[in-house]
Write a structure and sequence with these properties.
Layout (H helix, E strand, L loop, with lengths): L11 E5 L4 H16 L3 E7 L3 H7 L5 E4 L15 H19 L3 E4 L6 H9 L4 E5 L6 H6 L5 E4 L12 E4 L44 E3 L10 E2 L2 E2 L1 E3 L10 E2 L2 E2 L13 E3 L2 E3 L22 E6 L6 H9 L1 H6 L2 E6 L5 H14 L4 E7 L4 E3 L6 E8 L5 H7 L2 E4 L3 H9 L4 E3 L9 H11 L3 E3 L8 H12 L14 H15 L3
Parallel strand pairs: 1-2, 1-4, 2-3, 4-5, 5-6, 6-7, 8-11, 16-17, 16-21, 17-20, 18-20, 21-22, 22-23
Antiparallel strand pairs: 9-10, 12-13, 14-15, 18-19
Helix pairs in contact: 1-2, 1-13, 3-4
């Protein structure tokens, strides 16, 4: 051991991950954190792969191997697995001899198995990061000889009895969010967005009752007479709303800054609770489940989810009746077909629905003569500016991918989670159940499809009580936690 502590620029760390973005993105985020500290970072991954294209964009040296995953079904490809694994281990040992790293960290995926074994044989300190509540097969086996494992979920500790575990959260991409509905502007980060820009909301009569309408741009809401009655209106800029009389009863007025007791805060946002039939509103989640202009973000992953897309299509009337606007990531291959189906639905509802459909940068608007509900639908395929959407949404429907759930939890969004049943070790279900136990979401399995409306009603009721603990999610600081631990351990070995 040397008595001189190495500077960051003298420290070398090899990183590996692959297979899916759920492994690669957290690895890339930690790489960036290490680079910002001046550390020399090297990456091992499969040649001609997703990880190669993503990591090369960062400028990090990429060292290719050719390893094959184990398929769950019987296939002749399994014949090549032992040979490719052995060859990749040999190649990794050569890379380690050339680089002489101070540590190795693997982020899962079958690709990281070979360098983990090579690191063990070369007596290089081994670290792992596990994104899921139920670990994958690679980390399960590598965990038997690893020094330290960083976990996203405390439920994972039981799978790694032989090494040090640190519940660090998942290293998400931390970005400064700029809400879409801000300063009357539309998000310009991606041409795929055309979100309503915060101008005066449209006021209509709902089932013969007076509508509540709100101005989303922070200015005083406009008062109109609807069917001979004064409308209830609310001032979202924090000053007291004007109270008027509806059918001889005192109108409900709500102040969105949390004052004047008919308003309560929901998930860090001030909820508007109003009684649409002219009676005094009761300020409870049960009596004010659906507030006007609430926004639901539908997140099916980068490729989109056919099941989730079809589920939303089948329930458009439900969202319209409950005045829930949709911000809908369809996936690239589904965008045009979903747009066509939504347009068909709008055309069939012209006498009852006032609906605005936004798709790409060419929004189309279809209106009925006498609307009894209204719905804004924004369709897009994929975006790199997802933080903007998180900050503008009230709820999210999502799969159970570990990184998506980590981002959702960091934005304190109530999540209606539909796990992918075909996931490798059913990890999405276990991730979703962990979120449910933390009171951050509700699990809805695909086999429950026929009960969607009942379950979503229950979810909205429960959403008001989610995220009751005022704690900063670990995911926000996970990249720093992991990078700092690596550097601390490496320097301590030189003392």
């Amino acid at each position: 051991m040397s008595s001189k502590l190495p500077s960051s620029s003298e420290i070398k760390i090899v990183v590996s991950a692959g297979g899916t973005g759920g492994h690669i993105i957290p690895a890339r985020n930690v790489c960036r954190e290490l680079l910002s500290a001046g550390v020399q970072v090297f990456f091992i991954g499969n040649k001609n792969s997703m990880e190669e294209s993503i990591i090369k964009e960062t400028g990090i040296p990429f060292y290719p191997i050719d390893v094959q995953k184990l398929y769950r079904s019987l296939t002749f490809k399994h014949i090549l697995f032992p040979y490719k694994l052995w060859k990749s281990i040999r190649q990794c040992k050569k890379y380690f001899h050339q680089i002489k790293p101070d540590a190795f960290i693997g982020f899962g995926g079958f690709v990281s198995g070979a360098p983990a074994i090579a690191a063990k044989q070369k007596k290089i300190p081994i670290y792992l990061q596990e994104q899921n509540a139920k670990p994958g097969i690679t980390n399960i086996h590598a965990g038997k000889f690893a020094d330290t494992i960083f976990l996203a979920y405390p439920e994972s500790i039981k799978y790694f009895p032989k090494c040090q575990t640190i519940v660090s959260g998942n290293p998400i991409t931390v970005a400064t969010a700029s809400p879409l509905l801000n300063d009357d502007t539309v998000a310009t980060a991606s041409p795929l967005f055309n979100i309503p820009n915060g101008k005066d909301a449209i006021s209509t009569e709902i089932n013969g009752r007076d509508a509540v309408f709100t101005n989303l741009n922070g200015k005083d809401a406009i008062s109109k007479e609807i069917n001979g009655r004064d409308a209830v209106f609310t001032d979202p800029n924090g000053t007291d709303a004007v109270s008027t009389e509806i059918n001889g009863r005192d109108a409900v007025f709500t102040n969105l800054n949390g004052k004047d007791a008919t308003s309560t805060e929901t998930n860090g946002r001030d909820a508007v609770f109003a009684d649409l039939n002219g009676e005094d509103a009761v300020s409870t989640p049960e009596d004010a489940v659906f507030s006007p202009n609430q926004k639901l973000f539908i997140l099916g992953g980068s490729q989109g989810s056919m099941f989730i897309n079809n589920l939303i299509l089948e329930n458009l009337d439900y969202f319209a009746q409950n005045k829930i606007d949709l911000i809908w990531q369809t996936g690239k291959s589904h965008l045009q077909s979903i747009k066509n189906e939504v347009e068909k639905w709008i055309n069939c509802q012209l006498s009852t629905v006032n609906c605005q459909l936004n798709c790409h940068s060419d929004p189309e608007r279809s209106e009925g003569e006498e609307s009894n509900c209204q719905l804004s639908i924004t369709l897009f395929d994929f975006t790199s500016s997802i933080n903007d959407i998180y900050s503008s949404a009230d709820y999210v429907i999502t799969r159970g991918g570990a990184m998506s759930l980590a981002e959702i939890e960091s934005y304190r969004l109530p999540a209606f989670i539909i796990p992918l049943p075909s996931a490798a070790v059913n990890e999405q279900y276990h991730n979703a159940k962990s979120m449910e136990r933390k009171n951050c979401g509700m699990v809805f399995e695909q086999k429950e499809k026929t009960t969607f409306r009942v379950k979503f009603d229950l979810f909205i009721h429960k959403a008001n009580g989610m995220y009751t603990k005022n704690e900063t999610p670990l995911h926000i600081t996970a990249t720093q936690t992991i990078a700092n631990k690596l550097l601390e351990d490496i320097r301590s070995r030189h003392i």
